[in-house]
Amino acid sequence: MEQQRAILLRCASGFPLPPGVKMSYGTAGFRAEGMTLASTVFRTGVLAALRSLKMGSAAVGLMITASHNAVGDNGVKVADPSGSMMTQLWEPFADALAGAPTAEDFVRVVFEFVDEEKIPFGVARPSEILLGRDTRPSGEALLEAAKQGIAAVVGAVAIDMGILTTPQLHWMVRRRNEGRGASEDEYFRQLSDSFRRLMDLSPEGTLRNAYDPSVWVDGANGVGGEKLGELMKLLPAGLAVHVRNSGKDGEGILNDGVGADFVQKEKAIPHGFSTSDAGRRCASLDGDADRLVYFRITGEEGRKIDLTDGDKILSLFSLFIKEQLAKLEEGGEPAGRARLGAVQTAYANGASTEFLRRMGMEVAFTPTGVKHLHEKASEYDVGIYFEANGHGTVLFSDKFLRELEPLNAELATNHPGSESQKAALRLWEVSQLINQAVGDALSGFLLVEAILRHKGWSIEDWNSLYQDLPSRQLKVKVADRSVVTTANAETQVVNPPGLQEAIDAETAKYPNGRCFIRPSGTEDVVRVYAEAATQEAADGLARAVALEVGRSL
Ligand code: G16
């Protein structure tokens, strides 16, 4: 213990906390201007090592990314042994670690927590921390800080997995703890093999045949475009992917007028695309490829794009999975009665929730942040979660997969070629394709493509599942976003007092108006979301509430 204390103190002294920096673990880890983060990343290295020790030396992940934020920002987050986000129970400890003013304070916080959580130091089995980073220029130096934090914990070993998408790292952590191959090659092979098998299961001669095998992808000038390029080499001929904004020299800056966050929030055409792409099926990834949205450039004056957002992806996946379960049920298979649920946040367009409910889906709501949605979705046999911004996945419970595997074997023997057999196989392949650890734009993209091909749908067919209610999102720059607190899955403001009443009064002026605000967990802003009967009304409501926010903060 004394030796460990001395090592931590010595190493932490090399990473002083810059004056005036206040860090909070936020929606998805610590985020700030890249240059200010060395101390925080070093300390998160220690945090990750302690997490592994606490979890019986299971592998955990540490990812250096600021995802959709501007290129000058960076961030760091920890993945638990299951591959999902670090347990929220440890977030207050993460905040205390990151905020300790001096190296001595830091070491004191560590040892108090080690005592409280009974974290065993000095175990024989090494604790493995898998490290990944995106393409941000500050990433390399921050990775070094993380390695030093890990090295400061006796028995912890850093394994650098290189430049990765965030979901790749989460996938690798999960696989490593399952005792299965966790390399990038294996990731690409798993995705491409299950995609190919799913394509092979498409019905011959679908009723419609409007599916166009060509798709254009905006890589946000981040890591996703490059990885998609590698994945494409393994994909079957039935899909032609054209990647733009892949981050190569001269293509532009990470997340600057490109990427899923830009396309979804601004409803605008990203750089690298133009009206000459009108009508094409286009997709957009974010900076670390954990979000995915689709869009179609309309070519019409004024209305630039038709956005096909995370809500529509959720609806498409729900529809497909429900259909496969229905086929199992028709075939008399009890697995067809699996409990299927959708999870959304307050940002979900009201029309999507209505569509899902009409379809007979159970729909649950959580606060923003996939850590909340993921936890909720894992309560179902098959839980599908998506944020409107395109972050989500489909979770299959172990119980359901344990039922599905022998069912596949039984149907292959007794009912080969039956509708039930094909449905069971499709569900199995979806579970292999879609990332079970966290929302993953690359695996989500392949699943969208497989389903559109299965249904013979164009992007317009998909988009016309329902019509979005007009909406608008704005952000208000504030001095201290932490003074805003909310309740009821972020739909009600608790603090500052009086602000909710002001929002209610504005909302009442607009037919079918709905509006909420919440502090961002990744940027220094308060976000405003408004929905109303017309676009002008949604814009007006968002603007009026943004003014109220500005006035009361
Ligand atoms: C992260 C989270 C998402 C969340 C988003 C926006 O995304 O992983 O779940 O929706 O932040 O959060 P906020 O509104 O609090 O800024 P990403 O893609 O940046 O990692």
Give a verbal description of the structure.
It is a single chain. The protein has 553 residues and is an alpha/beta fold. It has four domains: 2-180, Alpha-D-Glucose-1,6-Bisphosphate, subunit A, domain 3 (Alpha-D-Glucose-1,6-Bisphosphate, Chain A, domain 3, 3-Layer(aba) Sandwich); 183-304 and 441-467, 3-Layer(aba) Sandwich (Alpha-D-Glucose-1,6-Bisphosphate, Chain A, domain 3); 311-437, 3-Layer(aba) Sandwich (Alpha-D-Glucose-1,6-Bisphosphate, Chain A, domain 3); 471-552, Alpha-D-phosphohexomutase, C-terminal domain (TATA-Binding Protein). Helix content is 41%, strand content 18%. The protein has helices at 2-13, 38-54, 91-99, 103-117, 139-151, 166-177, 184-200, 223-232, 260-266, 310-330, 350-358, 370-377, 398-414, 419-433, 441-455, 459-463, 499-507, 535-552; strands at residues 30-33, 60-64, 73-79, 127-133, 156-163, 214-218, 240-244, 282-285, 292-297, 305-308, 340-344, 362-365, 382-386, 392-396, 471-477, 485-487, 492-495, 514-519, 525-531. The strands form five sheets. A five-stranded mixed sheet has the order 1-3-2-4-5, with helices on both faces. Strands 7-6-8-9-10 form a five-stranded mixed sheet, sandwiched between helices. Helix 2 crosses helix 5, helix 7 runs parallel beside helix 15 and helix 10 (310-330) runs parallel beside helix 11 (350-358). The model has no long low-confidence stretch (mean pLDDT 95). Bound molecules: 1,6-di-O-phosphono-alpha-D-glucopyranose. The site of 1,6-di-O-phosphono-alpha-D-glucopyranose has 18 residues, from loops. Residues 27-28, 67-68, 286, 290-291, 368-370, 387, 389, 391, 520-523, 527 line the site of 1,6-di-O-phosphono-alpha-D-glucopyranose.
